């Protein structure tokens, strides 16, 4: 990773100082750094939904259609557990105790398949520092299918990427399970990301996690469900594709939207301070809607999460208005759309990135 230096603009520092003070005053009487009752009730509901649907997969009277629907519910609610529990645990905002957060982080990702430790390391050490900066944010690394940033090289196939992107997105989780995780673990290119964590711990947790994951989603159903192996594997693949699309719909447009900034620094220096950089590169969707925060684990309040990653996501509803008002006052950007508008904006962005003249 290429480390960069943020601007030291006094005006931008003043903006963030004022924003932090207003947020602190708003939440002063609350313990906002860790999970509250809303956090745990939601997590319990999703966990019960996930594992009750899993239990019912082995019912004697279940039909093929019933099995597939329950399997999708199992996978989808498992993804939402990752959003609601795992994401906060990776930022140590579920429990006060870091080890407790680590345990919750591990088990919250069990049905998703992405190694939680590797994901947490790259999410915090790369993405949260340098969102949308080529060579510094792993999340916008070049890929062989889509051109997501003007810093990526253009190829003729990208002219059609706005049309074939949904098919690529269906394989997001499977690609992470069977390819990305292994690259992040074994490639020397990502040693900076793993610094401070022993290789033995990385390998042990990786192997243990993959055993748990494949046992849960494939081996146990293959052994105990009353269906053919081909149908169970097909259920796994199609449910993963459906879950991947939900994952993409909620997240991809929060950084890859029409109007997002993709900083190309002068040498080692970025144009803005860290806080204002987050605003230029993030987009909220339906940030004031309770259903959106419930499903996305607060990821729809992307500006709040990037600016205040040490605050549990169930408190974002109380600071969104402060962010909007303060950015307007200090003439800083704040991108906010509905979910549909964000996805539409994402495909406009894909179309522009498919045009070498516009990109």
How would the blueprint of this fold be written?
Blueprint: H1 10-27, H2 37-56, H3 64-90, H4 98-108, H5 116-127, H6 161-169, H7 172-186, H8 191-194, H9 199-224, H10 229-251, H11 274-281, E1 283-285, H12 290-296, H13 302-307, H14 320-329, E2 335-337, H15 339-353
Parallel strand pairs: 1-2
Helix pairs in contact: 1-14, 2-3, 3-4, 3-10, 9-10
Taking the sheet with the most strands, its summary is: 2 strands, parallel
Identify the overall geometry: globular
- What are the low-pLDDT stretches, counting only 5+ consecutive residues below 50? none
* Number of extended strands: 2
Structure class: mainly alpha
Distance between the termini: 24 Å
Mean pLDDT: 93
* Element order: H for helix, E for strand: HHHHHHHHHHHEHHHEH
Placed side by side, the strands forming the largest sheet appear as 1-2
Strand proportion: under 5%
Structural domain count = 1
Tally of alpha and pi helices: 15
Tell me roughly what share of residues is in helical segments. Answer: 55-70%
By oligomeric state, this entry counts as single chain
Query: Which value, in Å, is the CA radius of gyration?
Result: 21 Å
GO cellular component, one term: membrane
GO molecular function, one term: oxidoreductase activity, acting on paired donors, with oxidation of a pair of donors resulting in the reduction of molecular oxygen to two molecules of water
Protein name: Fatty acid desaturase domain-containing protein
Keywords: Membrane, Transmembrane, Transmembrane helix
């Amino acid at each position: 990773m290429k480390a960069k230096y943020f601007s030291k603009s006094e005006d931008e520092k003043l903006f963030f100082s004022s924003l932090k003070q207003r947020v602190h005053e708003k939440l002063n009487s609350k313990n906002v750094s860790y999970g509250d009752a809303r956090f745990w009730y939601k997590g319990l509901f999703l966990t019960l939904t996930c594992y009750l649907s899993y239990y019912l997969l082995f019912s004697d009277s279940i039909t093929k259609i019933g099995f597939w629907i329950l399997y999708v519910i199992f996978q989808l609610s498992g993804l939402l557990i990752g959003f609601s529990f795992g994401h906060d645990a990776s930022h140590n905002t579920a429990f006060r105790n870091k080890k407790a957060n680590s345990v919750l982080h591990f088990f919250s990702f069990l049905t998703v398949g992405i190694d939680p430790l590797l994901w947490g390391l790259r999410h915090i050490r790369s993405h949260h520092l340098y969102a949308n900066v080529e060579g510094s944010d792993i999340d916008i690394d070049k890929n062989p299918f889509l051109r997501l940033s003007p810093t990526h090289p253009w190829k003729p196939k990208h002219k059609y990427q706005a049309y074939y992107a949904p098919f690529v997105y269906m394989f997001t989780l499977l690609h992470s399970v069977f390819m990305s995780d292994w690259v992040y673990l074994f490639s020397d290119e990502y040693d900076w990301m793993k610094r401070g964590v022993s290789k033995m711990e990385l390998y042990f947790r990786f192997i243990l996690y993959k055993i748990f994951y494949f046992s849960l989603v494939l081996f146990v159903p293959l052994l105990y469900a009353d269906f053919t192996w081909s149908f169970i594997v097909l259920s796994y693949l199609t449910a993963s594709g459906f879950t991947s699309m939900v994952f993409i719909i909620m997240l991809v447009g929060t950084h890859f939207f029409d109007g997002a900034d993709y900083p190309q620094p002068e040498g080692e220096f970025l144009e803005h301070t860290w806080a204002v950089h987050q605003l230029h590169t993030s987009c909220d969707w339906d940030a004031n809607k309770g259903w959106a925060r419930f499903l996305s684990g607060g990821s729809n309040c992307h500006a709040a999460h990037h600016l205040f990653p040490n605050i549990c996501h169930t408190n974002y509803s109380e600071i969104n208005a402060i962010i909007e008002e303060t950015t307007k006052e200090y003439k800083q950007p704040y991108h906010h759309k509905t979910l549909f508008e964000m996805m539409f904006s994402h495909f406009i962005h894909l179309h522009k990135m498919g045009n070498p003249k516009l990109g």
